[in-house]
Amino acid sequence: MKQRYDHDLAYMLQYEHVAWFEDGKVRILDRRIYPEKTEYVECESYEQVAKAIADMVTQSAGPYTAAGMGMALAAWQCRSLTKEKQLSFLAKASERISHARPTTANRMEQITQNAYKMAQNALEEGKNAYEAIFLGTLESLERRYSIMEKVGNNLARMFPSEGTVLTQCFGETIIGMMLRAARAMNKKVKFFCAETRPYLQGARLTATCCSQMGFDTTVITDNMVAYAMQNKHIDLFTSAADTIARDGYIANKIGTYQIAILAKHFGIPYFVTGIPDKNKKTSADIVIEERNPLDVLSFRGVRHTAPQVKAIYPSFDVTPPSLISGVVTDKGIFSPYDLEMYFKDAVQQFY
Question: Could you give the residue ranges of the DSSP H alpha helices within the chain?
Fold first, then answer.
């Protein structure tokens, strides 16, 4: 049996622990409380999957897996209907799931529309749609992980043999792949992980993966970055991107822009990882999601500000190409000013 691409990765990056459809339910690891607790949210309808995605039960690329599994669940829900009604049901599910979070709706829609086509083909052949979507989602996972393995190898080659790498937020598969590649290359790097308020993805998720995969790992609060760069010998800063526009502007978790400014000030290279978005031509096409301000005013239900205090919570910020040393892709490392070159050759399907 072929070895899966999630082999030797941290617990939360293994397929079954991201999101998994089985027995008429989708099980999603609750990343809001992991690793303090290892608990799963069980969804019995595609609406519940969409809500879980919107509620940040899973983050980074986790929603992409949840979207595919959610479409399998939708097909399960409508399995007893006529072919026409099943397709109508799945079209609604595709729209609902893909737009659970606006910033990545274009990527999510590719996943849910692919699932819809899988169902359509299966039904035309007299097969059940939910099994076709589930198997197609597994194939998609293998494809995405294999592409990210190339990205991870390209990024790890930029690491010093011994040194310190700063991360921002949680880049999902790329985190696991860069760690696996660095380990294979015998790179003895240390990782500093910015905690990433208000959900602490850097502290809880990235740092957990780094430590589980055997690397010296240190968490810093988001306001310690300048100090760390000045005093802790940071050699390289890296982050993934929720969106990479073709003009070289990238959107990533709020705080990335200010870290990039600091990296430029201290002469530290900043490498962004990911696949450029073909349908996002400029930064004007990037939608910044404004989330519930209560997430900033409280943590896990405990309010830490006076009742009359207000907050804002933009989930992402946009970093210009002038602050980016290179965009690391499956095809190599590109200048952020020359991303059109990425599309000169055939692009492998990713989502």
Answer: 46-54, 62-77, 83-98, 105-124, 129-156, 173-184, 201, 207-212, 225-231, 256-266, 294-297
Q: Any residues with CB less than 8 A from the CB of 351 and at least 6 apart, and which? A: 64, 107, 108, 110, 111, 114, 140, 144
Residue with tokens 């690793």: 35
> Which residue type is seen at 242?
D
The catalytically annotated residue of 6, 222, 242, 330 is: 242
> What does pTM read for this prediction?
0.90
Q: Considering only CA atoms, which of 157, 222, 168 is closest in space to residue 191?
A: 168
Distance of alpha carbon 228 from alpha carbon 340, whole angstroms: 35
Residue that has been written with the tokens 């939360």 in this structure: 12
Note if 247 is an active site residue: no
Look up tokens 């030797």; give the residue: 8
pLDDT tens, position by position, 19-74: 999 999 999 999 999 999 999 999 999 999 999 999 999 988 899 999 999 999 99
| Tally of CB atoms within 10 A around 186 | 7
